[in-house]
Amino acid sequence: MRRFLLFIQSLGEIPGGAFPSSHVGAMTSYMILLWFHDRKIFWYFLPFSILLALSTVYIKAHYMIDAITGAILAFPFYFYSVWAWNKLNHWLHLARS
């Protein structure tokens, strides 16, 4: 049975096939947060975030499309999170009143 499972994993595992890149998505979310709250730190971390995105492709952890999609998806996730946080805080404020 163990050999069969290893065989199945060997067929299904594609190096660099994680879609989208959560590493790049999280980094982009942090960069958006810094853009709105501390531009000085944003500019300091910008080269490191670009290097992180490029390195995920270089070490073949992701394909380029994975990194690009992770960065693009960070925007709606970030803005939805801010909206949800504000709604939750508003609801909690009303519940305490």
UniProtKB/TrEMBL annotation:
Residue ranges annotated for the Inositolphosphotransferase Aur1/Ipt1 domain, each copy included: 18-75
List the Gene3D superfamilies hit by this protein, alphabetically.
Answer: Phosphatidic acid phosphatase type 2/haloperoxidase (1.20.144.10)
Would the keyword Transmembrane turn up in this protein's UniProt record?
A: yes
Is GTP-binding one of the keywords? no
This chain's protein is named: Membrane-associated phospholipid phosphatase
State the SUPFAM superfamilies in the record.
Acid phosphatase/Vanadium-dependent haloperoxidase (SSF48317)
Q: Name one GO cellular component term.
A: membrane
